[in-house]
Design brief:
This protein is an alpha/beta fold. The chain folds into 3 domains: about 300 residues, P-loop containing nucleotide triphosphate hydrolases (Rossmann fold, 3-Layer(aba) Sandwich), CATH 3.40.50.300; about 120 residues, Domain 2, N(10)-formyltetrahydrofolate synthetase (2-Layer Sandwich); about 80 residues, Formyltetrahydrofolate synthetase, domain 3 (Roll), CATH 3.10.410. It is built from 21 helices and 24 strands. Strands 1, 2, 3, 4, 5, 6, 14, 15, 16, 17, 18 and 19 form a 12-stranded mixed beta sheet that branches. The protein has a 3-stranded antiparallel beta sheet with strand order 7-12-13. It has a 3-stranded mixed beta sheet with strand order 20-21-22. Strand 23 and strand 24 form a beta hairpin. Helix 9 crosses helix 11 and helix 16 packs parallel to helix 17. The longest helix is centred in the N-terminal third of the chain and has 21 residues. The chain starts with 6 loop residues before the first helix and ends with a strand.
Length: about 575
């Protein structure tokens, strides 16, 4: 077996092209491009005005089965497919989310791909990048500060301190900030109240940055953000507090898409960062809009499984932006399907080394059983009327028999355009050529793209069709606080907004321990919140957390710098 260097070694050895050359080849003009160092640039939104009459390219998303806690290589797949398309001579731009430092320093690691299918410069992308997340953090926390200052200085909006929905944020996994008390130490320090922090990428401000289509749209959405309610039950907004303009000013550069490149130098727009389990889980709309004007194909990635990011891409992002998918790729791994088939149990607190032998040992019965998880995701995506390609992300331990068995099941038991094993991690674009060609063919097929529900359905109708049609739940139950908020949100007219489910990504259900295709379960909506500026309502299902915590052996323990200042230990 060919030995593959580490991600860091591959990244350091890669020869980057000048980023301005890549921009010019795409058709970006000098006054539409700003440098952020030698290898990163931002594209100005005025390019969309210049190219508004140019037809869009083909829009393709990559999603996956319910993953293991380690992930199944969806970003690697997305980058590898872009590299494969470039090798076929297609004009392609990949669009991806920026890594949050929560998972980078936590258990999962960075989100810049891996092996020979990476975004570069990998170190900068994983550790701060162009400061977009920091800008969101500052804007969001400014809103919090303005709210607390208004309460202290006479409370002109008559805000009810027991009915405030806004929380501060930081882009780290820091569990002690989940529930805190602020305002201690006397009147000058504010009014004592219980609150908490969310991770920055789970905030409404982050969602707005990823959904806004222009500076004007960004300002409008920020102004509609709700921080809480008055004593009479009226919602209070960022515009009411007079802070929306300053928040938007902080985001003036963050909204511009970031141009980088892959290990094979094809262009990638890395922009936007909402999680898919607690937010809508897709990169920025402006990155997709720019890519679709500059390239013949835009391949994006939807976070976590198809029940999460892909469903939200269609029902939220495409609904709001007017974008339409031409094809979808569902990637999977033998390892993940064997996990769903009961071969091993991998969850938070369990080291992969403890289950490695079971995970990597050939196990055809477990693979056959776990295939049902993939099959359900295929069935679900057919409900949106789009052609499907399945890729099998081949890991080193996978046997030929396992690959052949899985491919045969997909081809005989499902209706997909093609099922193709890929080797993006070990071979880059060369390992994805057949899959890239399959995408080209899928984009030529008839397309009946549609959302799952109309705008005018009630909140409960929207929640229940997702739970029953996508998750396969038997029924939905609502706790009293959720019932009260549904009634309140309906009175405000927010029932016309789409639904953004906040639930675990590790199961089709809201219980991460229920693998494969659970049956007969009930979904409990324990709370429901409104992101009016982002334009969606998000129910909280199960014990989903908006502020993760660090494990016993977090990834940051391996990160350091060498005597020359190069970062080491980043994968």
């Amino acid at each position: 077996m060919r030995m593959i260097p580490s991600d860091s070694e591959i990244a350091h050895a890669a020869r980057l092209r000048p980023i301005e050359e890549i921009a010019k080849e795409l058709g970006v003009k000098d006054d539409e491009f700003d440098f952020y160092g030698k290898n990163i640039g931002k594209i100005d939104l005025k390019i969309l005005d210049r190219l508004k009459d140019k037809p869009n390219g083909k829009f393709v998303t990559v999603t996956c089965v319910n993953p293991s806690p380690l992930g199944e290589g969806k970003t690697v797949t997305t980058i590898g497919l872009g590299q494969g398309m470039a090798k076929l001579g297609r004009k392609i731009i990949t669009t991806l989310r920026q890594p949050s430092m929560g998972p980078t320093f936590g258990i999962k690691g960075g989100a810049a791909g891996g092996g020979y299918s990476q975004m570069l410069p990998m170190q900068e992308i994983n550790l701060g990048f162009t400061g977009d997340i920091h800008a969101v953090e500052m804007a969001h926390n400014l809103f919090n500060a303005a709210m607390d200052a208004s309460i202290l200085h006479g409370n002109p909006l008559e805000l009810d301190v027991n009915n405030l929905s806004l929380r501060r944020c930081v882009d780290l996994n820091d569990r002690v900030l989940r529930d805190i008390v602020v305002g201690l130490g006397g009147t000058p320090n504010g009014v004592p109240r219980q609150t908490g922090f969310d991770i920055t990428v789970a905030t409404e401000t982050a969602a707005i940055l990823a959904l806004a289509t222009s500076f004007q749209d960004l300002r409008r959405r920020i102004g509609k953000m709700v921080c809480g309610f008055s004593r009479s039950g009226k919602p209070a907004t960022a515009d009411d507090l007079g802070v929306a303009g300053a928040m938007t000013a902080l985001l003036r550069n963050a909204i511009k898409p970031n141009l980088v490149q892959s290990t094979e130098n094809h262009p990638i727009l890395c922009h936007g960062f909402p999680f898919a389990n607690v937010a809508h889980g897709n990169n920025s709309v402006v990155a997709d809009l720019v890519a679709l004007k500059l390239a013949d194909y835009c391949i994006t990635e939807s976070g976590f499984g198809a029940d999460m990011g892909a469903e939200k891409l269609i029902n939220i992002v495409c609904r709001q932006s007017g974008l339409k998918l031409d094809a979808v790729v569902i990637t999977c791994s033998v390892r993940a399907l064997k996990m769903h088939g009961g071969a091993f149990d991998l969850h938070a607190g369990v080291e992969y080394a403890a289950v490695k032998d079971k995970a990597e040992k050939e196990n055809i019965p477990a693979l056959i059983k776990g295939f049902q998880n993939l099959k359900v995701h295929i069935e679900n995506l057919h409900k949106f009327g789009i052609p499907i390609v399945v890729t099998i992300n081949r890991f080193a331990a996978d046997t030929d028999k396992e690959i052949e068995t899985l491919k045969s099941m997909v081809e005989s038991e499902t209706d997909v355009t093609k099922c193709v094993p890929i080797e993006a991690w070990s071979r880059g674009g060369e390992g994805c050529l057949e899959a890239a060609q399959a995408i080209v063919e899928a984009c030529k097929q008839p397309n009946n793209f549609c959302c799952l529900y109309p705008d005018d359905w009630s909140i409960k109708q929207k929640i229940e069709i997702i739970c029953k049609e996508i998750y396969r739940a038997e029924a939905v139950d609502y706790l009293p606080i959720a019932e009260r908020k549904i009634k309140q949100f309906t009175e405000f007219g927010w029932d016309k907004l789409p639904i953004c489910m906040a639930k675990t990504h590790l199961s089709l259900s809201a219980d991460p321990s229920l693998k494969n295709v659970p049956r007969g379960f009930r979904v409990i909506v324990r709370d429901i919140r409104a992101s009016v500026g982002a334009g969606f309502i998000y129910p909280l299902l199960g014990e989903i957390m908006t502020m993760p915590g660090l494990g016993s052996k977090p990834s940051f323990q391996k990160i350091d710098i060498d005597p020359e200042g190069k970062i080491t230990g980043l994968f």
